[in-house]
Specification:
The protein is globular. It is 27% helix and 23% strand.
């Protein structure tokens, strides 16, 4: 049975009154506990965990992880800027990006670590930065993930320098006198532990080609169990064999490599709940479906529509109503004018309806979507149908609720629109 993770019915009522819905609510205790778990990842010669901030870049979350000792994995120059504004030192930020920024020189000179992710990026960096230290991100030739959309390794992925281009990459680095001190690989989200271990071995083979490398970044992608029956990744289980690989590498080469990891989902997924309201109920008859329509949807959580991701759903009756908790099959949908705005798709099949056995929902009830901390508020279809971005709230360790991101206003949605000026004759 799906249940509330950290919120109480009293919390939910207070959130509805004080902040309205939809609202993302993060739990500080869960965030800090997850950070401590990551910091205990097995390692042989030192560990530097980096928070994959693309999963949720809100400043309050960054400040919590900074205070716990996590570094930053940034995926754009703009994420670098957000991390710095949240109090991170540039030396604790690593940037690996699909779109190499034009102003990368500024950030490199200021201490940001850059991982070059293509031959073109090596060339672009090398023209300016002869003699600089860099990292290289490689595609090791295989990956893992719940769907193809969460797999970022193998021949169908554009992320990183293809493994067969290693020699060309090395020649380019030599040409520009670049010192390669980091190797980076990442195989995907929800990665299989056995595949992760295998890729660790393949990544060490890459390290062998660069004698100046001092650290190996194996990315993240540790699976969390959102739904009943799912199996979560055990960090100790997957980390211990990799620790042994690093120890064997040291015996063979004399090189003590520091391990870097980049968790996002593991840190955030279960640390956030989305509080919404059932704003309508409709039915397509005895042979059809009963639909609960929320005042949220793909504008807050795109994962189900994008790749059939599963999230626990909890119905809390409106406080003024007392009725038996009759469980019936219902389809939960969002508020967007889009048939794909679906919160109960079949697993990994975003175009298929999968009715969920839930307490019979009625207009005015609260509907809580659990497991939404990662890749939800940061990856939604923002402002589709001109809906404003949801508010974000932190449930602090003392139980109090604090606003950490205001609800977007309509004026903010349109503030950058410009009417064309008169024709100049």
């Amino acid at each position: 049975m799906e249940h509330l993770r950290f919120l109480t019915p009293e919390n939910i009522e207070q959130i509805r009154i004080d902040f309205g819905t939809p609202t993302f609510v993060y739990d500080e205790d869960t965030l800090r506990a997850n950070a401590k778990s990551v910091l205990n990842f097995p390692n042989a010669f030192g560990l530097y965990p980096r928070y994959a901030m693309k999963s949720a870049p809100t400043g309050a979350i960054l400040r919590i992880f900074n205070s716990e000792g996590l570094g930053i994995d940034a995926s754009s120059e703009f994420e670098v800027e957000r991390a710095v504004r949240a109090g991170y030192g540039t030396e604790s930020i690593s940037m690996s990006t699909q779109e190499f920024p034009e102003n990368f020189r500024y950030w490199v000179q200021d201490g940001v670590h850059v991982n070059l992710c293509s031959l073109n990026q090596i060339h672009k960096f090398g023209i300016w930065g002869k003699g600089e230290s860099v990292g290289l991100r490689f595609n090791p030739g295989m990956g893992s993930g719940g769907t193809n959309r969460t797999n970022v390794g193998g021949p169908s992925s554009s992320f990183g320098i293809w493994k067969d281009d290693l020699e060309e990459a090395r020649e380019l680095c030599e040409h520009y006198q670049l010192k390669v001190n980091r190797i980076h690989t990442h195989i995907g989200s929800g990665s299989d532990p056995e595949v992760w271990q295998k890729v660790a071995g393949m990544s060490l083979d890459l390290v062998r080609k660069f004698p100046t490398v001092k650290s190996l970044n194996l990315g993240g992608g540790y699976k969390v169990a959102r739904m009943p029956g799912e199996q979560a990744t055990d960090l100790q289980e997957i980390g211990t064999p990799v620790q042994k690989l690093f120890e064997d590498f040291e015996k063979e080469t004399g090189r003590k490599l520091k391990l870097e990891i980049e968790p996002g989902t593991y840190l955030l997924a279960h640390a956030c709940s989305l509080v919404t309201t059932v704003q309508d109920v409709t039915s397509t008859g005895p042979s059809g479906y009963r639909f609960l329509k929320l005042n949220a949807g793909m504008t807050e959580i795109l994962r189900p529509s994008l790749y059939g991701a599963q999230h626990p759903i909890v119905i809390i009756p409106e406080e003024s109503q007392s009725r038996p908790k009759e469980n019936i099959e219902q389809v939960v949908v969002g508020h967007c004018c889009e048939s794909g705005d679906l919160l109960t798709p079949a697993p990994n099949e975003p175009e298929s309806l999968a009715p969920r056995l839930l307490p019979k929902g009625e207009i005015g009830d609260s509907c809580i979507i659990e497991g939404v901390g990662a890749y939800c508020s940061s990856m939604s279809a923002k402002n589709y149908n001109s809906f404003p971005e949801a508010a974000e709230v932190l449930r602090k360790s003392d139980g109090s609720l604090s606003l950490i991101r205001k609800r977007q206003t309509f004026e903010q949605i349109i503030e950058n629109e410009v009417a064309p000026g008169p024709k100049v004759s």
